[in-house]
Amino acid sequence: MQKPNAPKRSVVLAILAALFPVAAVAGVPADPLHSSNWGDIAKKYLTGGEIVFDDRVKVIVPSIVENQAQVPITADARALPGVVRMVVIADLNPIQKVLTLQTGKAQPYISFRMKVEQGTPIRAAAMTSDGTWHVGGIFLDASGGGCSASSMARNEADWTETVGQAQGKVWRELDGTARVRLRVRHPMDTGLAKDNTPSFFIEKFDVRSSSGEALAGLELYQPVSEDPTVTLLVRLPASDASIQFEGRDNNGTIYKSVLPVPSHQSALP
Description:
Elements: H1 6-19, H2 38-45, E1 51-53, E2 58-60, E3 71-76, E4 83-90, E5 97-102, E6 109-114, E7 120-128, E8 133-140, H3 159-162, E9 166-172, E10 177-184, E11 202-209, E12 214-220, E13 229-235, E14 242-249, E15 254-260
Parallel strand pairs: 1-8
Antiparallel strand pairs: 2-3, 3-6, 4-5, 4-7, 5-12, 7-8, 9-10, 10-13, 11-12, 11-14, 14-15
């Protein structure tokens, strides 16, 4: 994973460790990424149980970041049994918490895009049913400005007419899961832009089957990119013909979408 940049990142982490030695925090394991914010992050976001670093929790980031406002991130804890919740955190962002996935019928996996203000450790913390937090992470090498830039939608005179419009697709997989991708038009304003645009973002999504069964829950925060696009893996009965999404933004507006589910695909008998 990101092998071409591994030596460079090792040098960066070594320099950070030398310049900013991290004080030990009681009950919090030493951070392999040498982040000066790790102790505060652990105490603030990873409460209620033991914290361990675990290679089974993977975070995948690009080796080169071309757009700091649209950085693709994948958090994958499928190798870890019993995950009930996943949290994604960017240590050096002005708003550190990025999203939370309540797994339900979903696998502990999510792919999405986010904003970064500078190079930062990106972490995924997976809580298992015994209350333990299993943490994985990687250093994202990026220039900054993604969190403090105005959304592109603000340049369009009719942007209010497209807010909430959605598109997506569902693919059935051979193992009985469904790969679900949804994109919703929304500016996802952080409130940090120089034009003083207030914070305006989708803050939650409930994912349900056509029969109303809860499949997964998402809590989103301002660092999720404009027009948020998420990919999930959910367990879905073969009889279900659709997946329902219901979202809400921080102004109280409700967004509803229904994605049709194909009954057959080439991977299935």
